[in-house]
Amino acid sequence: MKFSIITITTLFLVFSLANTAQSTSIKVPDSLEQRVKPCTICHEDVDKTSLDAYFPRIAGKPAGYLYNQLRNFRDGRRYYQPMAILLENMSDEYILEIARYFSSMHYTYPQPDPHGLPPNEINMVEKLINSGDPARNIPACNTCHGESLMGIEPYIPGLLGLPHAYLAAQFGGWRNGGIMRGQTPDCMSEIAKKLTQEEVYALARWLPAQPVSGETAKSETLDPALVQRCEDIFSERKHFK
Amino acid sequence: MKRLFLRFIGSRQTFLFIACSLLLTLLTTNLALADFTEPQSQQGEYLALAGNCKGCHTTLGGKPYAGGRKLQTPFGEFVTPNITPDIETGIGQWSKEDFWQAMHHGKAKDGRYLYPVFPYIEYTKVTRQDSDKIFDYLRSLPPVAQANPPHKIDPPYDNQFLLFLWRTWYFEEGVYKPDSSKSEEWNRGAYLVQGLGHCTACHTSRNVWGASQDGELQGGEIMGTFWYAPSLISPLEAGMGDWPIETVVELLSTGITNHAVTSGPMATIVRESLQHLSAADMRAMAVYLQSIGKKEIDIKKTRKIPPMPEAVRQYLAKGELIYEKHCQDCHGESGQGVSNIYPPLAGNRSVTLTSPLNTIRSVLYGGYPPSTAGNKRPYGMPPYQHIIHDTEIAQVVSYIRNAWGNLGSLVNQFDVDDSRGYEY
Q1: Nearest C-alpha of chain A: how many angstroms from B269?
Q2: Contact: B369, A93; criterion CB under 8 Å
Q3: Does residue B314 have a pLDDT over 60?
Q4: Per-residue model confidence (pLDDT) at position B26
């Protein structure tokens, strides 16, 4: 086996030398940074807009969250064709490695973006954030997204430091279904459908105006009831011990 | 064809003669293929992988073998059936005989003709023994209750009589007959390529009736996808007549070699099917594919490079600037690429195919070669659809099709737009 590998390699070397005698060889770093070039051509460490698309930053988001989203794109649960094509033939192991890489990247949050909401709307938002609306079976945002709204390791993303355009698009995707189906049962989709248009608008304005402070909470702070309710999201926990 | 005709006459002697010759064929086939047995356990699973049953009979993110995948064709939309052993929605009530009827004769359990979107044109070459093993494997799967939506076949193609005529004309039924002048290895490769692996289902051009034009792996656009499956014969396309056997094996089982890479639907076939095949089977396929590939030396003389008009020169010069900015870091200043990482573009036959479709799609959407045991963490090509305009993509594709000794037609922005799929 070893011998045949050596023979093949030699054959290749001879072959490529004959073909590319005059050209200089390219040094390709054996790194993940080089391997994820197809990702970083669009996703940099800031949210950005290109010719006709919007690319959220992925740096610093929780690894499990990125892992789930990448698999959702690949397996058709979250619909965006350009992502689906890139991930089409990628293994779970490789996706996990890539998710961890982006998660560990340092990220500087943008300055707060003033919301200009009237006091009654601010009240409405703060109530949703801290206590939800039991009458409509809407849980408080901070039970899942952490006390400081910075997310909980490893699966739940933070809500601060995200631009208005991104939040508005995500809410739209959840409410209309189809574009973002997530895992089943899809907790966030159910919640988003219960919110009114006014609440969505106010939330998407209020959140980017908050100064970013604190860290992503550790997984110990997860509410056991949540873990049970959103079982599918947590099904791959073995990777994140 | 002739045999089919005779059968309609239905004389007793003819019937006996055909029965005897069929039996003989089956016997000899079994003898010839008997030496290539995989480990006894999970033979059926292995054969199902080789036939890539799961690839079509599973919808994106769905339960394996439960069907539901939609296949778009010029004749309508076909939905793959559930082939798990569920009684109501799957093949729970099927017998081995029913399964053989589908695989070999292209008929459903109730006797209706199946549409050739199910590749029975190729599966008919599969032996009864292998068909039974695949059936046993499918019956061992956990049943999944999943009723899939019906086909949406456009009239008049939903007419069974038309399908009967189509079959009479285009369908030649019969298990693969080994060529005694060739080695057992070659015959095993031919059996896999022509039969179970159903390579002809994609690597062929089809006429307006959806029938394979030549049945000989001459290449063609894959129905319902926006990809061109190159000829496996022509040395100007993906013919492997000049390749060492080891290189063919490496490409098909890892998805990449020093100078070539699989992309699009072929990358998926490598990931889902070919990478799981035994070294002996991969070698057998390579031996067969190498033998049917024409050698470059036979056709090189006919290629003439015409002088390039000034306007074309200027057009390509624009493409060169884009190449330097976006492509050169990985593919090199003379298109030399990096062995087993980034494919060379100079002399890359996939770049100079008559149809620029695959190259345009690679630039538009980028992509990764498949993650396989032999290439677990592949490097990838970034998508450029959001980075540069269609006119620029056209210029750079035209440039790489005509730089460093390459020779290909020029591409314009309309070709680029035409290469986007239905779902863009």
Answers
A1: 9
A2: no
A3: yes
A4: 44
Q: Is B339 a residue whose pLDDT tops 90?
A: yes
Condensed to tens digits (0 to 9), the pLDDT of residues A159-188 reads 998 889 889 988 988 888 655 555 555 788
**Region label for B394, one of left (φ > 0), alpha (ψ between -120 and 50) or beta (otherwise):** alpha
CA A10 to chain centre: 43
pLDDT at B409 over 50: yes
Q: Which residue type occupies B410? A: L
10 Å CB burial of residue A22 (0-12, 13-18, 19+) is: exposed
- What is the band of A2 on the pLDDT scale with cuts at 50, 70, 90? very low
Burial of A18 (0-12, 13-18, 19+ CB in 10 A): exposed
Rounded to the nearest integer, the mean pLDDT of chain B is: 88
Q: Which residues of B touch A24 (CB under 8 A)?
A: 332-333
- Which 3 state secondary structure label does DSSP give B17? helix
ipTM: 0.85
Task: Tell the burial category of B91 from Cβ atoms under 10 Å away from its Cβ (0-12, 13-18, 19+).
Answer: buried
Nearest 5°: the CA angle A40, A42, A45 is 60
- The answer to whether residue B151 scores a pLDDT higher than 70 is yes
The pLDDT of B231-237, averaged and rounded, is: 91
| Domain shared by B348 and B246, yes or no | no
Q: Of B255, B338, B365, which is closest to A85 when you measure between CB atoms?
A: B365
Q: Tell me which chain A residues have a C-beta less than 8 angstroms from the C-beta of B371.
A: 89-91, 93-94
| Cβ-Cβ contacts under 8 Å, B384 against chain A | 41
Lowest mean pLDDT of A27-41, A67-81, B20-34, B302-316, name the range: B20-34
The whole-angstrom separation of Cα A192 and Cα A202 is 13
Q: Which residues pair with B261 in a beta bridge?
A: B256
List the CATH number of the domain containing B404.
1.10.760.10
What's the pTM value of the predicted model, to 2 decimals? 0.85
Contact (CB, 8 A) for B43 and B56? no
Question: What gap in Å lies between CA B81 and CA B324, rounded to an integer?
Answer: 49
pLDDT tens column, A88-136: 999 999 999 999 999 998 888 888 989 999 999 999 999 999 999 999 9
Chain B residues lying within 8 Å of A8, measured CB to CB: 244, 246-247, 250
One domain, residues B163 and B59: yes
Q: CATH number of the domain at B212, please.
A: 1.10.760
Stretch (H or E) spanning B394? helix B390-400
Local structure of residue B193 (DSSP, 8 states) = I
Domain that holds residue B127: 38-170
DSSP B330-384: HH-TTS--BTTTB---TT-TTTS-SS-HHHHHHHHH-B-PPPBTTBSS---B---
Please, what is the Cα angle at A171 between A166 and A177, to 5 degrees? 125
Residue B176 inside a domain? The answer is no
Closest Cα to residue A149, out of A207, A218, A62, A102?
A: A207
Question: What percent of chain B is predicted at pLDDT more than 90?
Answer: 72
Looking at the structure, tell me whether residues B350 and B241 fall in a common domain. no
> A1 CB contacts (<8 Å, ≥6 apart)?
none
Chain A: give the shortest CA distance to residue B365, in Å: 6
